[in-house]
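A brief tutorial aside. Many learners find it easier to grasp structure tokens once they have seen a single protein encoded end to end. The record that follows does exactly this for JmjC domain-containing protein. Read the sequence first, then the structure, and try to relate runs of similar tokens to stretches of the chain.
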Amino acid sequence: MKTTLAVLLTIFALAAMQSSTSKEPTLKKADYLRVAHLSKGDTSGLASIREAFTERNPGYDLHYFGQVKEVPAAKAQRLAFIQQGGGTAKFLDGSSSKISVGDIIHLSSQQSMTTDSLIDMLVFTVPDPLPKPVPTFIRPDWDENITDTPGGCATDTGAYRRILLTWKDEVGPYTYHALNAHRVRITDSFTHYHPLEGGFDEFYLVQMVQPDARLITSNQTDKITHPESVEADEVDDLLQATQLKVGDLVYLPRGVVHRGVGGVLAQVITVPGFIPGSEIGVDHHLRRITERFSQASAQLPYQEEASKMEVIR
């Protein structure tokens, strides 16, 4: 295993303490955000996410299998994200592999799977099969083709950021244009959104957290991207915060401003994928708003480095 759990925990803790951010106020809770507490059997939260996600993305679906040893066959192509447990997974043709948290398993049409121990997994129905070069079992901590690649939401040197499925060949070894996933430790990402046209939906599947792990979001993207339109009494309501816990599934539709802080290890899953040029930074706007009202009590958190210029990735 390329990164032992002990080493990962140590790096994770140190990085969480090194987050560089502006002085943050106490933010209100995001009542518009769809979050499912999967580890607590939150079926209503998952149903809410599923309804919104499938409406926006025809041809896709998602289900959660909790504490199971078998996944029945289905007609559709599926990608299973291991969230809890491990052991050995086996197909009817006799092929098998070790599995652990963080892995993705491709379940092709009519493919069932059994495991030798209880596991939890989030399973996406996808419209297309994986291309031939992509392995059936994608194992970020075991596959030598997958190495730490700083970027995106984790730009620090030495950041834990494993590219499982991605959009462009030069970014990672396994490309797929229906769903992408990066397993990444986020301590202080830049604040951004994905445009309604040409963007992508995003999920955080939370697998490890520090005590202060949270997601800062806003559904007032138009207001933030036009900072001159913001009044002093509106600043406090521009951003909200959601505390993150292991087992949470957070759905971030196109257009929602978001930023991960405080130390969270997550599978960041995107549909149809990490389309280049579709991560639009807003920290420079947040900084401008804060500076406009610097004499008032209202302040906004922003990522310092990303606030110095317009950032598009």
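Self-check: The helical segments are 5-17, 43-56, 221-224, 283-292. If you spotted this yourself, you are ready for the next section.
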